[in-house]
Write a structure and sequence with these properties.
binds ligand MGD; binds iron/sulfur cluster; 18% strand; N-terminal domain of TfIIb; binds molybdenum atom; Rossmann fold; 23 helices
Length: 711
């Protein structure tokens, strides 16, 4: 055990932490000074080391034997997996096998997983949970700016701005230390939070610090069209910037013309005066009007919709009308979610992508990457399909019969999770690589135990596009292998024709070559430079390049250097409220738990403070439904139901209920959510669907903890 300067294993803020042995001999995490977290950490970070020596840790490979798992040796597990993969591929072709990755994997693992899939397995079926997370913002960023870096500026820049418009982001719970960067906007009364709930973040607008808008769920796009309409109608736009730095403005102008405030109010529920006030507040902060600067930022609340890409596009259009992107103390950004949500979307886990944010369908990209890998470009598979479609095909006559899962707990986190569970059960072979027995691992034929963050070296790319080092503080338990070792060992058994190095530094050096010349160019970023303390943001094309903290200052990454404004039209939810499903369900997160809860439900201090799911509903709704005072409610959609404790609160719209998605069993909200997807990004409609809410008279509230799930 040594002292290590590393970063938190959880979210994209990647708070800097020090891991050091305590007097008890256990490792403990404490925050370090770093720009994004400013010496802060949330309770998930503080307790993160508890999972390292948890009794629930898997340290031996497991093989299913009927209804239970038996412990097996690594050779036995890997030999049998390889034999079964080969047999499936010989019978049905390379696409008989699929891979599902995760945005929590280091850059090295994400890169290696993409390479392993395209060269050793040769299948086109790979995608990852970032599809559920960043895909709408990524698609909109690529379309508008020619490039997708969540925040194209350091997070600390926000602190100097005068106004910040936060659409569907609850950073007070999802990245608590980041709240400090909203201080400037709050001091100047310029924080605007858009959320159908008065979330912890919306509450930051109190006392004159800003404005909380609580629109009808799924209407952010209309709201944004309305704000843009007001900006143009009141001549608040930056016309010089629009002329010099954008194209497509006329289309956008025409498209927002019909969204006058009264019409916007009838859809969103936000009245005309408030809409105008927000538009004017943002415009007053814009550089061309002499303001200190303004930001438009989106989170999952605005993005996880069937029209998520177009919603983000509308947010970008508004930012462009105000002349924000690429200007001082101003811009548009998306708040990336997972620990390596940014890097994980750059190095080839996406169905259509090669490392360096190159595209698999581009012949020059195939040629370059195949050259680095030492294979024939023609041998690389064609693009596959996005996550939801991949999951739908599993175990069908035409679809993949085997799946490798690296870094996702689909049984809890995927939309319409009951259907997903059925697809996983229909597989001939499910291999899950994890360090805990997640609900998904519980369905596997093989569970391969892997190292945790504090046992690994590697790199992560934070929400600002800054590459940082993950460092090992402790040796992994005997019997556990790193993912790089697992892929190499499987590769050897499957006759790999490429090198599959197991040293993270070696993998990173190869990633640098593979990304060189690509949009996400890491060629100049090295472990040595990072270890010397350099702050390196991609693109960083060579060893002497200082990296790029701020992008788009002179031009955008489009062929003509101008941002592309695209006119968008609202389509609304696929599963909209109606007589027999009259209430909106919105989903999201709580402070204590991370994602599917696979990790945080196993940390005692977190689990005891939030042991089970709940459903938040307004007292008016409870009264209307005649369910005041009931203990538990059942929420039902055309996919399924959940049952959880009722929490009556005036902080939510009376037409809407909220549930967190971190829980399994009866408390699993994804039994209810809709798997309809955005046609551009493949993002599912996690953030809105239509439900029936009723008292649950079974008297069962599921408080199944992680432990019970394992047992
Ligand atoms: N505690 C905690 N922190 C996390 C995570 C976690 O699981 N737990 N996960 C990390 C990851 S991967 C991600 S992606 C980020 C997510 O970070 P956020 O985007 O901040 O998180 P969410 O809670 O999913 O959604 C934000 C808000 O959207 C609101 N919302 C729901 N529907 C709508 C809508 O139609 N319009 C608008 N405007 N808002 C709506 C919800 O009420 C919620 O308060 O958090 C990261 N940090
Ligand atoms: N209803 C609803 N559903 C949602 C969302 C929502 O807002 N509402 N949000 C969506 C979003 S934004 C996201 S990001 C997804 C996330 O949901 P998931 O993809 O399920 O993410 P995690 O729970 O983080 O699962 C990661 C799993 O991998 C394991 N793990 C962690 N690190 C590693 C590693 O390095 N290697 C390996 N092999 N395993 C590792 C963990 O133990 C855990 O079991 O959920 C989505 N689902
Ligand atoms: S979960 Fe996110 S906000 Fe909390 S300590 Fe970790 S990196 Fe920081
Ligand atoms: Mo996410």
């Amino acid at each position: 055990m040594t002292v290590a300067e590393t970063h938190c294993p959880y979210c994209a803020l990647q708070c800097a932490m020090r891991l050091a042995p305590e007097a008890s001999g256990r490792l403990a995490a404490s925050p370090r000074e770093f720009p994004t977290n400013g010496g802060g950490m949330c309770q998930k970070g503080w307790t993160s080391a508890e999972l390292l020596d948890s009794p629930e840790r898997i340290t031996v490979p497991l093989r299913r034997d009927g209804g239970r798992f038996v412990e097996v040796g690594w050779d036995e597990a890997l030999d049998e997996i390889a034999v079964r993969v080969r047999a499936l591929q010989e019978a049905e072709g390379a696409d008989a096998v699929a891979v599902f990755g995760g945005g929590g994997l280091t850059n090295e693992k994400a890169y290696a997983l993409g390479k392993f899939t395209r060269t050793v397995l040769g299948t086109r079926y790979i995608d990852y949970n970032g599809r559920f997370c960043m895909s709408s913002a990524a698609a909109a960023g690529n379309r508008a700016f020619g490039l997708d870096r969540g925040l194209p500026f350091p997070l600390t820049d926000l602190g100097d701005a005068e106004a910040v418009l936060l659409l569907g982001s609850n950073i007070a719970d999802t990245m608590p230390p980041a709240v400090q960067h909203l201080g400037g906007a709050r001091d100047r009364g310029g924080l605007v939070v858009v959320d159908p709930r008065r979330s912890a973040t919306a509450a930051l607008c109190d006392d004159g610090a800003g404005i909380h808008l609580a629109p009808v769920p799924g209407t952010d796009l209309v709201l944004l069209l309305g704000l843009t309409h007001v900006v143009l109608a009141e001549r608040l736009a930056d016309v010089d910037y629009l002329a010099a730095r954008t194209q497509g403005f006329e289309d956008v102008r025409r498209s927002v013309a019909a969204w006058w405030p009264e019409r916007v109010a009838s859809v969103t529920g936000i009245d005309e005066a408030t809409l105008r006030r927000v538009a004017r507040r943002l415009a007053a902060a814009a550089p061309h009007r002499g303001g200190r600067g303004a930001y438009v930022l989106t989170g999952r609340g605005a993005e996880q919709h069937r029209d998520g890409t177009d919603t983000v596009t509308a947010a970008i259009n508004l930012a462009l009308c105000l002349g924000l992107p690429g200007r001082d103390r101003s811009g548009y950004g998306c708040l990336t979610g997972q620990g390596n949500g940014q890097g994980g979307r750059e190095h080839g886990q996406k169905s259509d992508q090669l490392p360096g944010y190159r595209m698999l369908a581009d012949p020059a990209a195939r040629e370059h990457v195949a050259g680095v890998w030492g294979v024939d470009p023609a041998s690389l598979p064609e693009p596959g399909v996005p996550a939801v479609e991949l999951l739908r095909r599993l175990g069908t006559p035409e679809g993949p019969k085997a799946l490798f899962v690296h870094g996702s707990n689909l049984v809890v986190s995927a939309p319409d999770a009951r259907a997903v569970t059925d697809r996983l059960r229909a597989l001939d072979l499910l291999v899950v690589c994890d360090f805990v027995a997640s609900e998904t691992a519980a369905l596997a034929d093989f569970v391969l135990p892997t190292t945790q963050w504090a046992e690994e070296e590697g790199t992560m790319t934070s929400l600002e596009g800054r590459v940082i080092r993950r460092r090992a503080a402790v040796a992994a338990p005997a019997g556990v292998r790193s993912e790089l070792e697992i892929m190499a060992a499987l590769g050897a058994r499957l006759g790999a024709r490429v090198a599959l190095p197991t040293d993270p530094r070696e993998v990173f050096d190869e990633l640098r070559r593979a990304s060189a010349g690509g949009k996400a160019d890491y060629a100049g970023i090295s472990y040595d430079r990072l270890d010397a303390g350099e702050a390196l943001y991609w693109p960083c094309p060579d060893d002497t390049h200082p990296g790029t903290p701020r992008m788009f200052t002179d031009s955008f990454a489009t062929p003509d250097g101008r941002a592309r404004m695209v006119a968008v039209t609202p389509v609304g939810p696929e599963d909209d409220v109606r007589d027999d499903a009259p209430v909106y369900l919105v989903t999201g997160r709580v402070l204590q738990h991370y994602q599917s809860g696979a990790q945080t439900r196993r940390v005692d201090r977190l689990n005891s403070s939030m042991p089970a799911a709940y459903v938040e509903l307004h007292p008016y709704l409870a009264a209307r439904l005649g369910i005041e005072g009931v203990e538990s409610v059942r929420i039902t959609s055309s996919r399924g139901s959940m049952v959880a404790q009722a929490r009556i609160s005036a902080d939510i719209r009376p037409d809407t209920v909220f549930a967190p998605f971190h829980f399994s069993g009866l408390g699993r909200v994804n039994s209810v959510t809709n798997a309809a997807t955005d046609p551009i990004s493949g993002m599912p409609e996690f953030k809105v669907c239509a439900v029936v809410v009723e008292a649950d008279d079974t008297g069962v509230i599921d408080t199944a903890t992680a432990r019970e799930v394992v047992a």
